[in-house]
Amino acid sequence: MIAPEQVDAPPPGDGPESTGPAPAARRRVRRAEIVSAAARIFAQQGYAAVGMRDIAEAVGIRGASLYHHFASKEEILYAVCLTVTRELNEQNLPFLDAPGTPGQRLAAFVRAHLEFLQPRRVEHIVGLHELAALSPAHRAEVDGYRRYYQRRVRDVIDAGMRSGEFAPADPRLAAFAAFGVLNGISSWFHEDGALDLEEVVRGYVVLIVGRMLGSREYFDGQNS
To answer: pLDDT exceeding 90 applies to what percent of the chain?
Structure first.
């Protein structure tokens, strides 16, 4: 890896003292571009084979500029993992707290999860395959977000079973099975495939909430 002092100086507008309208917003956009580009390279070549210069070239910036945004390659991987853990929690868990029956809340959650995950499929795959490369502290945080996300879904499934809306089963196993179906979309779905995302969403609501969990409201697909 090339140290910061060994690379070229950053071009105008990429350094920490950039001026002009909304520099903080530009910085957020640039960080997102770096995370997205790094995820693609990590997925194609493997985390261990990629250097900071490779990431900088993929984004179209000089090597020194990359260090204005991230201190290390591991920090970039950590940011990749947060896009499909912390951000997933922030955006989707409110659906589980919304008014409605457990089935209605879980159906909305299934839709939100799939619509969130599909455009981030590369980040999701990298987060699964390269988790061991994170520092212990970062890995513990990422694992914590995942466990909390799963537990919240398990709690809603348990509530539906206690109310009689869902068929009796082990809520933990049911949650694991549901996430196995949901997260599997990253390995097979493509925009130019035989199914569009809306068809997948509707079908998965029926499959998970109606058929797997036994909600009569969603069993025949009329309310998906």
So the answer is: 79
CA angle 190–78–63, rounded 5-degree value: 95
Mark 175-193 as b/e (b = at least 16 C-beta within 10 Å): bebbbeebbebbeebeeee
pLDDT tens for each residue of 114-137: 999 999 999 999 999 999 999 999
**Cα dihedral angle (119, 14, 77, 146), rounded to 10 degrees?**
-60
Question: CA-CA distance, 38 to 219, in Å (whole number)?
Answer: 41
pLDDT tens profile 16-25: 444 445 678 8
Cα dist from 59 to 35, 44, 90, whole Å: 9, 15, 27
Q: What pLDDT shows up at residue 22?
A: 66
d(CA 66, CA 78): 15
Categorise residue 9: left if φ over 0, alpha if ψ from -120 to 50, beta otherwise.
beta
Q: What's phi and psi for 147, nearest 5 deg?
A: -65, -40
Looking at the chain, the number of H-run helices and the number of E-run strands are 12, 0
Residue with tokens 């060994």: 6
Q: How much is the pTM?
A: 0.84
